[in-house]
Amino acid sequence: MSTSIRNQLGTIRRARGVSAVELARSAGVSRQTIHAIEAGSYTPNTEVTLKLARRLEVSVEELFSLAPDNPEAPAGVVSELLSAGPVAKGQAVRVCRVGDHLVSIPVQSVPYYLPEADGVISKLSRSPGRVELAVFAPEDTHHRKMTLAGCDPAIGLVAGIVEKVSGVELVSAAASSRLALTWLKEGKVHIAGSHLEDPATGEYNLPFLQREFPGTDLAVITFARWEEGFVTAQGNPLGIRSAGDLAGAAVRFVNREQGSGSRGLLDRLLAEAGVPARQVAGYDRVAFGHLAAAYAVLAGEADCCLATRSAAQTFGLDFVPLRSERYDFVMRRQTLEMPAVQSFLDVLQRAALRRKLETLAGYDTAQTGAVQA
Fold first, then answer.
1. Would you list the DSSP string of 169-236?
2. Beta partners for 102?
3. Range list of H helices, the chain
4. pLDDT in tens, the chain (373 residues)
């Protein structure tokens, strides 16, 4: 095979858990041919190449690509952007492929550490939701990854174990429950996390999915139950115990974005207490995610937010429990066939994960891994 062609067949095959014999049978060639292709000593014809890509559920470009003329220069690609908030040129992103969609997910820097990234945004597009990227290593950006959108603060615990046991990277896209499910409907993520409560029945997620995904065969698997409530500074100096305590200028609140389960819960609590949203100082101020909202309280930028116990526990803040909620993972039924997803579901059954969720996040894992639909 020409040295100008980069070959990722062996890497992707092993990441997918497909044997050389099985792949050879799918492509109509011998096992020796597969090994020769992977070694770079044989160039497959178009028909074999297409069969290989179809069996491994990747694009031809992910298997074979031309080396750039200048290997030191990042390669430019256009992708769909998965971001709940604004982005800027130069922002670091992870890059993944979900079906026919090439998606980029912004990663956030934290004090002292630069984030792991596949590239940076090089140009903002006039088309909403699309950006041009400078990608560091195009052949390494797509395979061995699966995407999960949602707001669960503990998903990093799952991601660490999944990568350790299977080599699959779980790339998380921060999103409200509704936005995560929208991206799932559009085919831009493999899995969406949701904790949307149906006010009429008190059931989580299933009524919403039945309305918004008619005729779609979905799998719904519980991650955990968590407590959601008010997060305040240590000692709860303002004595916040109920939604009624948020009225007036004395309490600076930071809200979650529209479409989040937390904002939906706040609106119901305010309605029950007879408090108009306009009387809550900071109702229109938004933090994207439980941890971001809790950090605003830690930093003294707000007195209170509505978030999970795990978010309060992470920053050593006080927590006033209000509701127990079920957080589910939602995916298309055919996604269950992906080896990466099977590895992900296997991790949900592991005692080591459950101990971490219970100890570090305060979650109830009695239903973890239970199939709801």
1. EEEEEE--HHHHHHHHHTT--SEEEE--B-TTT--BSHHHHHHHSTT--EEEEEEEEEEEEEEESTT-
2. 97
3. 9-16, 20-27, 31-39, 46-56, 60-63, 155-166, 177-185, 206-212, 261-273, 290-298, 309-314, 339-348, 351-356
4. 444 677 788 878 877 778 888 898 989 998 888 887 887 778 888 898 899 988 888 888 888 877 655 555 455 688 899 988 888 888 899 988 888 888 999 987 655 567 788 888 988 877 778 888 888 876 555 567 899 999 888 888 898 898 888 888 899 998 999 999 999 999 999 999 999 988 889 899 999 999 999 988 999 999 999 999 999 999 999 999 999 999 988 999 999 988 888 999 999 999 999 999 999 999 999 998 899 899 999 999 999 999 999 999 989 999 999 999 999 999 999 999 888 888 899 999 999 999 999 998 889 999 999 999 7
Q: Please say whether the beta carbons of 230 and 304 come within 8 A.
A: yes
Q: Give the strand pairing for 130-135 and 92-98.
A: unpaired
Q: Is 199 exposed, middle or buried (0-12, 13-18, 19+ CB in 10 A)?
A: exposed
Please, which residues have CB within 8 angstroms of residue 318's CB and are 6 or more apart in sequence? 231, 232, 233, 234, 235, 236, 312
Tell how strand 253-256 and strand 286-287 pair up.
Answer: parallel
pTM: 0.73
> Among 272, 325, 315, which Cα is nearest to 293's?
315
Query: Which superfamily does CATH assign the domain made up of 5-66 to?
Result: lambda repressor-like DNA-binding domains (1.10.260.40)
Domain ranges of the chain: 5-66, 70-141, 144-373
Report the C-alpha gap between 316 and 294 in whole angstroms. Answer: 10
How far, in Å, CA of 207 to CA of 223, rounded?
Answer: 18
Among candidate residues 59, 159, 63, 167, the one with its CA nearest the CA of residue 107: 159
- Residue 292 to residue 314: CA distance in whole angstroms: 11
**N-to-C CA span, the chain:** 47
Residue range 144-373, CATH number: 3.40.190.290
Q: Which two tokens stand for residue 2?
A: 């020409």
Closest CA to 352 of 340, 336, 365: 365
